[in-house]
Amino acid sequence: MKIKKAAVIGAGVMGAAIAAQLANAGIPVLLLDIVLPDKPSADKPDRNFLAKAGLERALKARPAAFMDKDRAKLIEVGNLEDDLKKLKDCDWVLEAIIEKLDAKKDLWERVEKVAKKTAIISSNSSGIPMHLQVEGRSEDFQKRFVGAHFFNPPRYLHLLEIIPTPKTDPQVLKDISEFAEHTLGKGVVIANDVPGFVANRIGVYGIVRAMQHMDKHGLTPAEVDQLTGPALGRASSATFRTADLSGLDIIGKVAEDLGKATPEDEDFTLTDRFLGIMQKGLLGDKTGSGFYKKTRDEKGKTKILNLNLDTLEYEDAGKVKVAAVEAVKGKPLPERVKALYTAEGKEGEFLRGSMNDGFWYAAKMAGNVSNRLQDIDNALKWGFGWEQGPFETMDTIGVQQVIKNLEAEGRSLPPLLAKMKETGRDRFYDAAPDGTGETVTPAGEATPYQAPYFLLSDLKKDASKVVKKRPGASILDLGDGVLLVEWHAKMNALGEDQLRAVQDAHKLVQDMGYAGLVVGNQGEHFSAGANLPLILAQAQADEWDELDDMVRQFQQTTTSLRFSPHPTVAAPFGMTLGGGCEFSLHADRVVASAELYMGLVEVGVGLIPGGGGTKEMLLRFTDQLHPGQQIGTALLPAVQRAFELIGTAKVSTSALEARNLGLLRDHDLIVMNKNHVIDEAKRTVLALAPDYVQPTPRQDIPVMGDAAIAALKSALYGMHEGGFITDYDLVVSEQLGKVLSGGTGNNRTARVSEQHLLDLEREAFLTLLGKKGTQQRIDHMLKTGKPLRN
């Protein structure tokens, strides 16, 4: 089934954000809400007031709900009295109204009368059982009904829980799951129709139990967040910052409802301290204060205050440090998890108590909330930002060790763990040498493991697919004649290993008869740019010949992605900055994740793009001009556009914006699901390979020469005099302008080669690197992570 148009009923925070994500995916949306006849004025009421307000809220949301605000044009607003009949044109109808069963049942009775008879019908309810909502509806309606529980904000949280009822047609479940994964870019978890479904059931249990253990061991919320955050492979919001973001009233209501709906041994009891905080109205971000309060000091700088749980007053506790966390800094995740789980003192006791609660509960929920262990792990990873789910974490520690600890606490083992003890298995997931693997069922029986989508981590299980390996990069065989260059340094900073891996891969493609090459990875980010510590160290040691050779090599490697005898495809995602951006700019095609933060940001450290980025943006923007404009002063808008993009270090907030900025071309592909990017890039190589013709470097790029330099200098000095740019901004910008002008001495009819512009780039890059102001900027960035405005 093709979903060509959708409807969202309920334009609150969640409904409007879901509509925005549908629009991000290019799906037209009908957004409906109830009528408020007295809004905005009694004499002329706007019957679509609530739907319009919801759309405006989504447009103003931070972080942004829309990948491109133009996508808001795909949303049509209306109301449930005048526009319900328009549901006849919608293939998917999704409800996001108030969490009251009677209201939902009344809505479905009205929807069934007008909706298309083939439409999929869904509820975004986070707590009301799906089967109860469709009681009294026709058999056909119930077959097409399935829960679709998004997590807030829908654009950024990968998880979508799909909840079938006993009467949901399996084909409907398949259709909506495939649409959600491929078109919306979601990570789909099939949940059972039980209280709390998967992520909230286990996640809220963990939050409640962490609060209980915090009181027991005399820790503060800030200390607990240090222990349960990134150090443990979980989101930076950890436990209590997550509670603030969600709303303490929401956490309290969910915990209360789950406490009533679950067995007695599942303790969702809220602590007296938590209840006291709620009663005082400290509900988190929605009220401006919860466990934390954001304020500003006398200089206007943001400061975070911590709630004293004894006095319920806010205090400036400074930067909280926890010894157990400090001891594992810089270590790989498995080492951190093991060390924290076995830590001494009250910190270790807290962690073992709360982690054992989580392990016990996840095992108890296996086969209850979902029928696959992978779905439980994925729900916590995608919904709460964990790096490992509970079963993966138990594998890291050792399942038998976890079982011993649980028994030492006097706990009875859930059936899954009892079976693991009986069989002696120490892992829930086992990899086989040929790349296949197995896991266990909720009953503890071994079963073949099948990843839901293409994952490099699964590919790496077969060592034979690693063709060549360096400490910071690998070359892998993706099958069907396609090689992959994968960087795996910290933040994928670009240095010798990364460049040589690309060069090695080109040679392998030619020598071994491969079809082509993909440059990509599945780290946290594609690449944050060049290896700044190395560059700074070489500059301060006056190793200018080595630096000149390095920049030449970098240019040759980036441009090799275009000027090779085989197709190359870049697969960027996340942070794709500086050199990472330049690699993408030179690929024959780009297959980008929709969440792409791409830009040429070198001016922030007092440099200009030196790997062909400056050249490429000038070439692209001049090519977009009419042939009659590619001469003299008519070129100036293209030069100015490149100058502004690079000179302001503009970074896209999505792949759609990257296309608007010119960083992506019209024929580059945008993929909503980051986990599908490598697979799609491979298909693109195979599509290009049969008729591929090696391009040749351009010799005809029009430049303005001295005329452009004069125009840019005039604008720069005006900005400097007005206080818009600093003294050193002026120095960097003048070098950038020189390159974009094609150098001094050129006349209005000059045309230059790509190599000429690359030479100018390299000269400007090295000139700036030799200046004190640039070295100060690099040093400041490395120490603080922030740009220096000198």
TrEMBL record:
Database matches in Gene3D superfamilies: 1.10.1040.50, 2-enoyl-CoA Hydratase, Chain A, domain 1 (3.90.226.10), NAD(P)-binding Rossmann-like Domain (3.40.50.720)
Alphabetized Pfam families for the sequence: 3HCDH, 3HCDH_N, ECH_2
Organism from which the protein derives: Deinococcus cavernae
Catalytic activity: a (3S)-3-hydroxyacyl-CoA + NAD(+) = a 3-oxoacyl-CoA + NADH + H(+)
GO process terms (BP): fatty acid beta-oxidation
CDD domains with a match to the protein in the record: crotonase-like (cd06558)
Residue ranges occupied by any 3-hydroxyacyl-CoA dehydrogenase NAD binding domain in the UniProt entry: 5-193
Keywords for this protein: NAD, Oxidoreductase, Signal
Domain of life assignment: Bacteria
Signal peptide location: 1-25
InterPro entries named among the record's database cross-references: 3-OHacyl-CoA_DH_NAD-bd, 3HC_DH_C, 6-PGluconate_DH-like_C_sf, ClpP/crotonase-like_dom_sf, ECH_dom, NAD(P)-bd_dom_sf
Limits of the 3-hydroxyacyl-CoA dehydrogenase C-terminal domain: 196-293
Sequence ranges assigned to domain Enoyl-CoA hydratase/isomerase in this UniProt record: 488-614
Protein name from the UniProt record: 3-hydroxyacyl-CoA dehydrogenase/enoyl-CoA hydratase family protein
